[in-house]
């Protein structure tokens, strides 16, 4: 399509002047002004409706130790930087890779804190989770904040973990379940502590398919993802009841729709989505959060003095409790049943 005539007409239009109250005003100035107003308005709309709330807590964490899974990228890395700036000792729990080594260096540099360390873990392998927990317990270090942040999303085809479990259920729920259960003695002994399970808005439509929890018969990628994110919320509710007489607070949260690598499996396995994603990304940018913005709710749960026994065990988004998003929230029978099934899956590694 030849755009030359349209460009010539636009150039002619912009070269014109108009008269307002006797003043000669170039059209190009009016167009520029209108564009600036539209841009500022759009930016304000995005800031108000899509960027979400910010964590305004000024709490320092000197002497506190934080463990974050998946902190070599996205909101996990931004969370690590923020907490390290607050003088915490931060452990990023990720697989060994150049990406992790680079992230470790970046977190130390950005936070000006050398007390940031990497401990290897592969959440697709329960042996690795067990090994991480054993090393950590043997180290004698405390845990004041555990953030189960890592996750994968909506794999188009059914894949399995090293132990043969459906990969989303294994990575998003079972591995964090095992990690938390193994580290609970350390967490409780550390005094005032917090556990944060990063869930998703996808849990709104989630259900727990107890008859086929690994979706062996009829795999539906988004249904599986929604179930795994609901499991994060249900486990948080169970844990809060279990830890009610301790100094440990537990919550789940939705970070928002964030521009991170969470879609990597979805795009890698669905080649036809890549050009589609590339074509709509500029528009999606307007309606999504940066990794820093997406980290705000879990940072709020980690640092705010407003988190207490009364609002613990809840599901949060934009630094606020979200109630009634799924009818299974706080269903103690479902929470108990999920706990028992999860324990059966990982019983070999709990001993």
From TrEMBL:
<dbReference type="InterPro" id="IPR036291">
    <property type="entry name" value="NAD(P)-bd_dom_sf"/>
</dbReference>
<dbReference type="GO" id="GO:0016491">
    <property type="term" value="F:oxidoreductase activity"/>
</dbReference>
<keyword id="KW-0560">Oxidoreductase</keyword>
<dbReference type="Pfam" id="PF00106">
    <property type="entry name" value="adh_short"/>
</dbReference>
<protein>
    <submittedName>
        <fullName>Uncharacterized protein</fullName>
    </submittedName>
</protein>
<dbReference type="InterPro" id="IPR002347">
    <property type="entry name" value="SDR_fam"/>
</dbReference>
């Amino acid at each position: 399509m030849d755009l030359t005539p349209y460009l010539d007409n636009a150039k002619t239009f912009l070269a014109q002047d108009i008269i307002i109250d006797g003043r000669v005003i170039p059209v190009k100035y009016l167009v520029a002004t209108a564009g600036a107003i539209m841009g500022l308005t759009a930016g304000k709309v995005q800031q108000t409706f899509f960027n979400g709330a910010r964590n305004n807590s000024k709490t320092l964490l000197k002497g506190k130790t934080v463990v974050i899974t998946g902190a070599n990228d996205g909101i996990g890395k931004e969370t690590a930087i923020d907490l390290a700036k607050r003088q915490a000792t931060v452990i990023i729990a990720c697989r060994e890779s150049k990406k992790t080594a680079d992230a470790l260096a970046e977190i130390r540099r950005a936070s000006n804190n050398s007390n940031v360390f990497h401990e290897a873990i592969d959440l697709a392998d329960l042996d690795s989770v067990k090994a991480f927990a054993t090393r950590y317990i043997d180290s004698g270090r405390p845990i004041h904040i555990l953030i189960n942040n890592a996750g994968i999303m909506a794999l188009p085809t059914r894949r399995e973990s090293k132990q043969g479990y459906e990969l989303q259920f294994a990575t998003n729920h079972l591995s964090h379940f095992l990690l938390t259960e193994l580290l609970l003695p350390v967490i409780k002994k550390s005094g005032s502590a917090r556990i944060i399970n990063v869930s998703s808005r996808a849990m709104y439509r989630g259900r727990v398919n107890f008859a086929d929890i690994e979706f062996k018969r009829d795999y539906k990628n988004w249904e599986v993802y929604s179930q795994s994110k609901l499991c994060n919320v249900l486990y948080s509710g169970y844990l809060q009841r279990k830890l009610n007489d301790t100094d440990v607070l537990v919550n789940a949260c939705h970070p928002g729709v964030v521009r991170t690598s969470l879609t990597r499996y979805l795009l890698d396995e669905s080649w036809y989505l890549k050009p589609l994603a590339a074509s709509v990304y500029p528009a999606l940018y307007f309606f999504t959060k940066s990794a820093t913005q997406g980290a705000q709710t879990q940072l709020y749960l980690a640092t705010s003095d407003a988190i207490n026994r009364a609002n613990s065990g809840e599901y949060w988004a934009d630094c606020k409790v979200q109630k009634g998003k799924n009818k299974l929230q706080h269903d103690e029978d479902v929470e108990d049943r999920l706990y028992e099934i999860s324990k059966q899956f990982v019983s070999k590694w709990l001993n």
